[in-house]
User: Fold this.
Amino acid sequence: MVTAAETDAPTPPAGGELRRFRVFRFKRGDAAPRFDEFDVPVGPKTTLLDALRWIQLRRDGTLALRHSCLHASCGTCGVQANGREVLMCVTFVHDLGHEITVEPLANIPVLTDLVVDMREFYARFPDVHPFLRESEFLPEADTPDAIERYARYEDCIECGLCVSACPIVATSDRYVGPAALAAAQRLAEEPRGVDVEDVLDWADAEDGVWRCHAAFECTEACPSNVNPAARIMALRGVLVGGRLRLPGLRREPA
Amino acid sequence: MNAPAPGREAREARGPLRRKGIGPSPSGWLDPRGRALGSWAFAVNRVTGLGLVFYLYLHLGVLSLLLVGESAWNDFLELATTTVFLLLDVLLLFGLLYHGLNGIRVALVGSGVVPNRQRALFWAGTVIGTLALAYGALHILGGT
Assistant:
């Protein structure tokens, strides 16, 4: 594979071509964000991350972006490419057209350039997270310094793409968003000892499960097949079913 | 248990917030770039909803012409049979059909009855709605 990062001059590799990138730029102290343009040589297998790294290495070392695993597992390289939420590491430039606008995720404050402040993503979750599950790993394995434990939302890679894509998050600052609700549904589906009623109470709120307007953009954006929208709807089904049942007919817990 | 998300003001103090949407102050819910079927269905549902609310008040205003007198009402009826007005009736029928059928779709999906069938329901509604719209338009424009 020829990656753009291996090419020094902006001449396309064999079978490749030049693509124009409009990249969102913002640094602390800037009066306003701007877009910088770069022509980048790309091959058939060049990923968006390859192209951005090429810009970073060959054209502008101040371009800030975030990435880690390179295989859609860590969830750190989420951006908007031509208005669509993608993970840069698994998105081929050839699929994006000849002029590609790259912006940070929407609905999450920008720290610098393409890097967003993920505290906003986590701030949408409740303080006490019954949805967080401790990762299962060998008991003798040590966690790195400053990390007390490994914990992840089940299936979710916490990339924030769903929060960026959701039109309701864009219009309602208090909506908890698709990721947290999908995690809640997963827990209701398979409690593993957690109090499901507590989870349902949390979700059963104006800014919880009922704020979703069924646009399904979260499911379209999710790179991890969590299918948050269907999970939100399933969670509603559980809540609606519970409400429709007469109190005297409520099923006793097993 | 619920920890509300920080307000917009507090977040924007930390850095600019990119918003989807069109216009100088994008609201985010209507952005044509790269959106999928569900977003279009949602956006059109909102637009038709706003249109139907507008029509309701317009309708009440038109009915109030009856208070003005018989000639005012007859003048309106003459206007109401022009081709342009009849085309607006067809547009109204589209709004009613779309909003109603999509409402059924959203209710079925949103209440968890068929959480994974939003696309199939959309296309089923489209077929039913198109047939009903064609039937209605023929009657409206045909004058029968």
Helices of chain B lie at 8-14, 37-63, 65-68, 70-80, 83-110, 118-142. The interface with chain A takes residues 1-8, 11-12, 14-21, 26-31, 33-39, 41-43, 106, 109-113, 115-116, 118 of chain B (CB under 8 Å). The mean pLDDT of chain B is 83. Chain B has one domain: 37-142.
